[in-house]
């Protein structure tokens, strides 16, 4: 199968289909129905697999890549760093999600995971408070900063279940699912 060549097996229950820098060309090209391409390929390929979940990692920008992802999803998990620009731009993403919901006549469940959280920093506490005032019911967990995450991603390894980030992510995902 065509789709098989993109699957990277981590273990029996986890596969990754990595993004690629060539996708930046996708934004520049004039393609008809650009925002529906992912839906087309998912419909064509995913029925051949028994995946419980498909996680789509998109760049943090309002591009046709994110609209493709929003078109095929019913849940959005936003890993948001507790930094001023990330928190202040979050309402822009929420507006776009609501627009896709209206156009596609569907509901998209939004969850926030505070990402790369650094405790005992007063500046971050102020930003976190700003986020929680407006979006507290969306916040499902917090993952502290860890270099271990980058190691297992870059080396396509199975995450170590003893790492604190693993338990924090697991807890956040359990509250989402």
From TrEMBL:
<dbReference type="InterPro" id="IPR050678">
    <property type="entry name" value="DNA_Partitioning_ATPase"/>
</dbReference>
<dbReference type="Pfam" id="PF13614">
    <property type="entry name" value="AAA_31"/>
</dbReference>
<protein>
    <submittedName>
        <fullName>Putative plasmid partition protein</fullName>
    </submittedName>
</protein>
<dbReference type="InterPro" id="IPR025669">
    <property type="entry name" value="AAA_dom"/>
</dbReference>
<keyword id="KW-0614">Plasmid</keyword>
<dbReference type="InterPro" id="IPR027417">
    <property type="entry name" value="P-loop_NTPase"/>
</dbReference>
<feature type="domain" description="AAA">
    <location>
        <begin position="10"/>
        <end position="109"/>
    </location>
</feature>
């Amino acid at each position: 199968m065509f789709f098989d060549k993109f699957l990277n097996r981590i273990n029996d229950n986890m596969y990754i289909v990595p993004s690629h820098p060539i996708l930046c060309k996708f934004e520049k090209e004039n393609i008809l129905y650009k925002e529906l391409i992912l839906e087309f390929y998912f419909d064509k390929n995913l029925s051949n697999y028994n995946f419980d979940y498909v996680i789509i990692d998109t760049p943090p920008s309002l591009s046709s890549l994110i609209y493709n992802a929003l078109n095929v999803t019913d849940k959005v998990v936003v890993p948001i760093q507790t930094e001023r620009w990330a928190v202040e731009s979050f309402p822009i993403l929420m507006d776009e999600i609501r627009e896709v919901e209206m156009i596609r006549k569907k509901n998209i469940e939004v969850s926030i995971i505070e990402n790369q959280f650094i405790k005992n920093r007063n500046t971050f506490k102020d930003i976190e408070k700003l986020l929680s005032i407006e979006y507290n019911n969306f916040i499902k967990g917090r993952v502290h900063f860890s270099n271990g995450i980058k190691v297992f991603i870059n080396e396509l390894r199975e995450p170590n279940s003893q790492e604190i980030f693993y338990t924090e992510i697991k807890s956040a995902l359990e509250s989402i699912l």
